[in-house]
Design goal:
- The chain is mainly α.
- Helices cover 69% and strands 7% of the residues.
- It has a two-stranded antiparallel sheet.
- β1 and β2 form a beta hairpin.
- The longest helix has 23 residues.
- The relative contact order is 0.11.
């Protein structure tokens, strides 16, 4: 008999996989996550992205290199430290992220609309709790 934590992990994994299926770009989940982080944080350093994503700096650098090669992010010299760079979303990165989120959000909105008000309220509360767990 699965435990509550196993059931939750399975449900979250299945929802995550289903949301990823709504994507139409060739970007990896990691690349999408980095774009989303840049959207939230604004222009920032690769090390700040690595800390937020909880991955190594070399891993973020590889991801950013791919995103820059595709024109989805832009690099600029750090205004105070010439040894560092500041990374930001390009216009194409903003557009790509917006299109992917629109498609995903439309799918999710349709599913949520089929729930009753109580179920939607439970999910709103669960989303806040899951965010707290994730950020801890």
């Amino acid at each position: 008999m699965p435990t509550d934590s196993q059931n939750l992990a399975l449900a979250v994994a299945r929802l995550n996989r289903r949301l990823r299926q709504e994507r139409h770009s060739d970007l990896t989940p990691t690349q999408m996550s980095v774009l989303g982080t840049l959207r939230q944080m604004g222009p920032t350093s690769p090390s700040s992205i690595a800390a937020r994503e909880r991955v190594s700096a070399p891993s973020v650098t590889r991801t950013l290199n791919c995103l820059a090669d595709d024109g989805l992010v832009e690099r600029a010299p750090h205004p105070e430290d010439g040894r560092q760079v500041v990374v930001s979303l390009s216009d194409l990165g903003e557009k790509t992220l917006a299109e992917e989120r629109k498609r995903r959000d439309a799918w999710l909105h349709q599913r949520l609309a089929s729930l009753d008000a109580r179920e939607r309220a439970v999910l709103r509360e669960a989303a806040a709790i899951l965010t707290r767990i994730t950020d801890s």
